[in-house]
Backbone:
């Protein structure tokens, strides 16, 4: 994307959706999931059922 503002907004929406789906999967199936996502700005976002240290 050429417009950095649009890129950040799109990233944020997809990140929230991905984390919600991962959370539902953990609840419904009992799966242990960890996700690490890097934003276009270089920030790190993570999701982990239990704790990230345990899963890593």
Residues:
């Amino acid at each position: 994307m050429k417009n950095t503002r649009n890129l950040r907004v799109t990233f944020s929406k997809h990140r929230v959706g991905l984390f919600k789906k991962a959370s539902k999967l953990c609840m419904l199936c009992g799966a242990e999931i960890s996700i690490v996502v890097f934003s276009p700005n270089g920030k790190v976002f993570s999701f982990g059922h239990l704790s990230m240290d345990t899963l890593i």
